[in-house]
Write a structure and sequence with these properties.
alpha+beta, Glutathione S-transferase Yfyf (Class Pi), Chain A, domain 2, 2 domains, six-stranded antiparallel sheet, 13 strands
């Protein structure tokens, strides 16, 4: 399905806003601060179920009693989301719900200027980025990640206690071992797919023979659930002293390599941009192959960060997708 239109009421700085979308490329033009990104944010909410940058109290226009967004597809279907300072409601298929139903979700590739800093980002930034992609691909991954993070939080709270026994942690150790080993296995599988496609896309952009790849840096290796549990139990005294869990998939990193060296210290600015573009193309490909739908491409003011060569490559690789982009000036490519 393609997006036909999106309308906003009391959303961010928009009293009323309506956008008619083209089936190929739609450009939202305007000065900084005029609310261009907010339109992409509204589209994201009605395709993925939540904002990519804020919570609902931050989104609703100041002093407004509610916000409302409505998205219409080219087949006539509509999605509506409202928020009244207390309750958020989605209306899809003539039914109300507190969350966007799974069958109402549509794959999206979002490109923000901050993504161009991903190569030099921190391990937590890398985990956040790839956990988001993997959760889009797999509901099982998303569920395991949510349960892992809840168990990790509970275990860390207990570790801060003065009088703590090993037995008090056992149930949380079991949960971390179960969900952590599952997540580790899925991360390994997704990284293999990414690396099968990352270098061909990079070569098509940079037009050279440099070798780029993504490395999953982890303490776990090919660890089993029982081995994971054993490590947690062995680290009891250390973790109690530190007040947090020192072993597990929450310490993983995803590091880019450029010609066998860490890209953060060896890739130039242009090479870094080519690498991130290649990653976005891989993201679109893996979403389409795994979910059976072409993702909608949302580009937030990225053309100002790219030269003409990379602009052309961006458009050429996404020419078969619906693209909605923002810019402060008319773009040329």
């Amino acid at each position: 399905m393609l997006i036909k239109s999106i309308s906003l009421t009391n959303f961010r700085n928009h009293n009323q806003y309506y956008l008619e979308c083209n089936p190929d490329t739609t450009l939202i033009l305007g000065e900084n601060g005029c609310g261009k990104t907010s339109v992409l944010e509204a589209i994201y909410i009605l395709t993925r179920g939540k904002s990519f940058r804020a919570t609902d109290p931050d989104i609703i226009k100041r002093e407004a009693p509610f916000y409302r967004i409505e998205l219409t597809y080219d087949n006539g279907e509509t999605r509506v989301a409202t928020y009244n300072h207390q309750v958020k409601t989605f209306i899809c298929f003539d039914k109300k719900s507190r969350r966007l139903p799974k069958k109402a979700k549509h794959p999206v590739v979002l490109f923000q200027p901050s993504d161009l800093n991903l190569v030099s980002g921190s391990p937590s930034r890398h985990r956040e980025y790839f956990d988001h992609i993997f959760s889009e691909l797999s509901e099982e991954y998303s569920t395991n990640l949510s349960k892992y993070e809840k168990a990790l939080h509970q275990r860390n709270e207990l570790l801060k206690s003065d009088n703590l026994s090993r037995d008090a942690l056992f149930s949380w150790n079991l949960l971390l071992a179960r969900y952590g080993s599952n997540l580790h296995k899925m991360r390994q599988e997704f990284i293999i797919f990414i690396n099968e496609n990352l270098n061909p896309f990079y070569t098509s952009i940079a037009e050279n023979h440099d070798l780029v790849f993504l490395k999953h840096k982890t303490e776990l290796k090919n660890i089993t659930e029982s081995a994971y549990l054993k490590f947690l139990e062995q680290n009891f005294e250390k973790d109690h002293y530190l007040g947090h869990t020192s072993f597990g998939i929450h310490r993983d990193d995803f590091e880019f390599f450029f010609n066998a060296n860490p890209a953060s210290g060896s890739a130039s600015r242009g090479e870094t941009r080519s690498l991130i573009l290649a990653l976005k193309f891989v993201e679109a490909k893996i979403l389409e192959e795994k979910l059976g739908e072409k993702p909608i491409i949302l580009l937030d003011d990225v053309f100002s960060e790219l030269d003409n060569l990379r602009r052309k490559c961006l458009i050429n690789n996404f020419k078969d997708h619906q693209v909605i982009l923002t810019s402060v000036e008319a773009v040329t490519y």
